Amino acid sequence: MKSFKYILSAGIILSLVTSFSSCTKKLDEYNPSYATADATWSTPEGFITAVNAAYSEQRSWYGKEDGFFMSEAGTDLWYNRDKNTYARQLTQYDGITAADGNPHKAAWSLLWKAINQANAAINRIDLAGFTDVNEKNRRLGEVRFLRAFYYWHIVETWGGVMLRTTETKATLLTAARSSVDDFYKLIISDLEFAIQNLPVDWGNEYSRASKKSALGFLARAYLSRAYYTTGTEAQTYFTKARDVANDVLNRRAELKVSLWNNYADLFNPARNKEMGKANGEALYVVSNSVVPSLNYDDLGNRSFHVFTGNYVGKPGLIQSLAYGFESNRRLMPSLALLDFYNEAIDARYDASFQEVWLANATTNFTWTAALAATYNKDASVVGKIIRPGDTAMVITKKVIADKRTRNYVVYDRNDVYNANGTIVNGNNYVALKKFVDPDRSAPSVQAGSKDVIVMRLAEMYLIVAEAEHQLGNNGSAATAINVLRTRAAKAGQTAAMQVTASNINIDFILAERARELAGEYLRWFDVKRIKNGQNGAEAYSTYIKRMNPDVNKVQDFHRLRPIPIAEMQGLQNAAEFGQNAGYQ
């Protein structure tokens, strides 16, 4: 097994283990003979440890529930399962203050560790003894991509906070805010350098940043930046977003990336580790090893926990690898999300959600009068049998008129949701199945090994569509969207899936992003970007309450998270620095 070791810069104390590929590479903390960063990073071979370390903290977000709470919860798409209050600060905007804890407090700390590591590598590369300028610039391209990657998460989450470009080696007692424009100038500059210097691919190390990663992220950055301004300046950024995204699409063969023919293949566990390799659809991947001890932590990718349905103990059903680990299920879909899909013509619904559970118990289940009453079944089912392999449970967004007489458990639309979109109880719901991980060693194993797809080619079509709409070119927006809708069409439904310029508005684009990208770490950023209450746009809180009415405490200032109280208390100039508006 080939290993990539790293040590961490001064001022960063971590104990991390991670990996860059599924089973053949290892990247772990290393301090040979208690060597310092200065000594270890003084050679090109040693400097790679600094680069490797800069990748680590993305794994605290991507593949962990905190990342989903930061990037998907509190939007139009999700609510707490069982209507509970877990992480209510972000799922329901109930009590989100500077003083509350995880997950936004943890994200703040970990992202700044990542920024410091990237800055340390950038600041020290000239001391690393590189004689090959191309190799030096490749490594610098990696860490500049990562700095841009982390700073995009920071500025979009907390706004114009401090912008640091040098390594922090000691406690800082003061801080100054920088403008959002300054953040994006650095982000764009870093990504432009990365584009010029990163390779098309790294061979087996497919989860390193590459040229396609930097191009894709630059398109995303331009699109985000456009919404912070108006008029001609906004049009300039929308144009740049469109042009860079189109550049990726036009260079697919060169960049070794392709739109897969089948939407369902994107989330086929057997094909997961093809996504980031040559001709996969991913532009950027956070990889995980099949050996848990080689990962960032012993839990690897836990995405499969978050959206799992409630099935264990239902008639004919036992815990299984195929149906997931349900003890840590967190989020259920809103009715709005389910209704975004026309499942009769759009294959993305069936590929994304589970409505049917087949009996997986090894023995027959026989309905008794007591269980029939428990599950609100008609007396006619008493004595009937559910055999292994039979339908055991259906949870559907449809209305099932004869559900009481069906020989299996049924929860239909009216059992789960009220007519106005509020949730009845949330105990049972259609489950998002995109992240299922059936390749664990046992159903009770909580560690996952699947790679996380951070950005994929489909997003480029959506960026083109959104930018074209904002530029007044709805026909071109429809053309871009139709590429994805053609891929998503069920057999014989391609024509029905096509849209025209007359269908295009910003709500349609936001809904299309949900249909394509639900659960993929983007929704909160999408909603806060588009529903900003400016230039005629609907307000953030108005939109969320309209689409997901259980999230009834949301306010417009929640488009930014609060700066954690520990950060504010540690600043001698806290009053000058200032908390984000609306928070105490």
Q: What would you call the structural class?
A: mainly alpha
What number is the mean pLDDT?
Answer: 93
Low-confidence stretches: 1-6, 10-34
Shape: globular
> How many DSSP H or I helices?
23
> Separation of termini?
51 Å
Chain oligomer state: single chain
CATH class of the domain at 2-256 and 563-577: Mainly Alpha
- The number of strands is 14
Description of the molecule:
With 584 residues, the protein is mainly alpha-helical. It is built from 23 helices and 14 strands. The chain has helices spanning 37-40, 44-54, 65-71, 88-91, 104-124, 133-158, 180-197, 211-226, 231-250, 252-255, 303-306, 335-339, 348-352, 369-374, 413-416, 458-470, 474-488, 494-497, 506-517, 523-530, 540-547, 565-569, 574-577, and strands spanning 2-6, 17-18, 25-29, 78-80, 282-286, 331-333, 353-354, 356-358, 365-366, 385-386, 391-395, 409-411, 431-432, 452-456. Helix 6 packs parallel to helix 8 (211-226), helix 16 (458-470) packs antiparallel against helix 17 (474-488) and helix 16 packs antiparallel against helix 19 (506-517). Residues 1-6 and 10-34 have low confidence and may be disordered.
